[in-house]
Amino acid sequence: LEYFGEAFTKKGMNISNDVDLGTLKMEEITELQEIVIESKKPLIQRKVDRLVFNVENTVSAHGGDVIDVLKITPGLKVQNDQISMIGKNGVSVMIDDRLIQLSGNELINFLKALKSDDIKDIEVITTPPARYEAEGNGGIINIKLKKNKVDGWSNTVRTIYKQATYPSFSIGNNLMYKKNKLNILFDIGYRKDQDIYTNNILYNFPLNYLQQSVFEKSNTNGVAGTINIGYKVNEKLQLGLQYSGFSTDANKENSNINNIINYQNQNVNNTLLSDGITNEKYNSNSLNFNAIKSISNSDNKIMFDVDYFNLNTNRFNNLNSHDFKSEFTTVDNNNLRKIENVSSKIDFDILNKWANLSFGAKISFTETNNDIDISRYNIINKKPKSVYNQLDYFTYNENIQAIYFSANRKFGTKLEGKIGLRTEFTQSKGYSETENKTNTNKYVEYFPSVYLSYLHDGENTFTLSYGRRVNRPSYSNLNPARWYLTLTSYEEGNPFLQPSFTSNFELSHSYRNFLTTTVSFSKTKNGFGQLTIHDAKYNMQAFVRRNYYNYNLFLLSEYINYNVFPWWTASAEGSVYYTETNTYTKYLEPKYSGWGGYFSTTNNFIFNENKTILGQLTYEYNFPTLFNENKIEEYSSLGIGLKLLLNRKKLQIAINANNILGTDRIKTSNTTQGVYQTFKQYYDTQYIRLSLSYKFGNKDISGDKRRTSNEEEKSRTK
């Protein structure tokens, strides 16, 4: 006789009639110890208003930082410390629906301090809904972190060593605790980076050309920390308090050689040698209080946030130069800047039979103060003679009030729609103390968003979306301070810059989360950026900020993800786009248009049955591209990675090599005022990185992070 396939008694007998076997006893010899159900999310998921990239099973999700993961995220490009979507600029970055109030190098440094192991998935939102700030022409990148699972505690110690031209390292500790209603996260990290930057520049003036060779070595020390406390008062009320801050001290040694060469005889008319030291100090503090209150039932919620944020910067630069004629020039740049923001927002989520409704409001108050002291003077007969001075105190105040409404509804099992409208009221005022000039600006703008998703047959999904966005100038772009990069070039902001506006249209098709095709069109009006203005008489270049163009982008992209073998998963992305720029400045041609393209592939490997030896191979290639007036030549990058999971996966060792072939070097050219110029830049991207982390305690818990209300303002503090 058998029970569930197991024989529990055996006896030979002949049966011709019914036989009573009596009571049969079964020994409990089978014990079910454990059931393990393993499921793996698809690498790509398409939702009604975003694309979700699940990164938990990729090698780049271990032993690195957030930047490493963004580099392999579909639709994104990370190049020369700039994050963008394919063919677009002005992207915003969020963590758990909380916009990071930093940009430029400050944003990159912040993201490098975050562990990639804590990432659950990344949402690429090309057309953000009304709930999010309208800031960012290029859309939003939302980084979702792993959430709490069970009570317990966990501590992770990490260290990273990177060898590029010079060595760099970082150390950190992450402590998480969850018990009943209390949840605490504490993270602190220190890094010491050494990087180089080179740029070979050529300016073709009418009578001669200028060759400029720039070399910069930076030494950066930085500390970053986060404290997050969450408390669940009861089933209907949750409270949270979060503090995050960082302090960075960077010293840069720079030198450059300028050769002025005559066209006719190719003789060097003059050589200008320059060297200098730049010191940059950044200190930032961010404080958030939040509350979530359930109403009626657990599905209806009120969310409330109050935020305070500040950023203090102190930049000082001293440049010295001399030429063959023994003429000496000295420049002292000094700029103190302070940014403060106070904001608050309230959101309502209401679910009913007709639709899921969301509505809310936000207020924001920002004040920036810039203390400017710039002086340039020549040394003649050992006596200084002033050439240029800028002494000013510039303040900029900006207030924004916003309200929004959105509704989401499913029509049957196949069709889903979402509509929204966000209205923002903006008042700004800039004041220059020296010039005694005030610039005020007031405007009201509307930002509609529409989404429609259709599930055709369980395997094919079609999504159509439209949205309008705004890109406000960063606070540094509004700062009129002149900053000398070399003795023959400087950059300066423009307090009269106006925001640009972009309309995005997108149609996408997804087949079984295996193949995704996207066609999109975006139209930007009143775009702003950097222009080069030449003074041929003195061989000077000024990099200024202006509103000077309207921009159209047509984009076709294809993404595929497939399992080549059970141990080999591959993904590839290709994009082709056409850009058209119409300018309204005397320094450029009236129209620029051209094609561009991008290709990347990521391959993940499992080398053993226990899945404790993993590998990764990545490659990207950028085709020649035209962006506004700039022609960008092709460049590429090849990377490999290996990860070991030891001691029951508590110890993780990862080694990664980036830009192995050294082909990640960008050459850009354009013509301004009839002067043809080229730039060949290198950002020290060829390196080997070794990372180790050890985790003890309850390995299944992870802390929460919170979205705050002063989201947009942080994104503009570059």
TrEMBL record:
Keyword Coiled coil: no
Cellular localization per UniProt: Cell outer membrane
Keyword Metal-binding attached: no
Database matches in InterPro entries: Beta-barrel_TonB_sf, OMP_b-brl_3, Plug_dom_sf
Record Gene3D superfamilies: TonB-dependent receptor, beta-barrel domain, TonB-dependent receptor, plug domain
Cellular component annotations (GO), alphabetically ordered: cell outer membrane
Domain Outer membrane protein beta-barrel: 295-694
Keywords attached to this entry: Cell outer membrane, Membrane
SUPFAM superfamilies with a match to the protein in the record: Porins
Alphabetical list of PANTHER family matching this protein: PLUG DOMAIN-CONTAINING PROTEIN, TONB-DEPENDENT RECEPTOR-LIKE BETA-BARREL DOMAIN-CONTAINING PROTEIN
Protein name: Outer membrane beta-barrel family protein
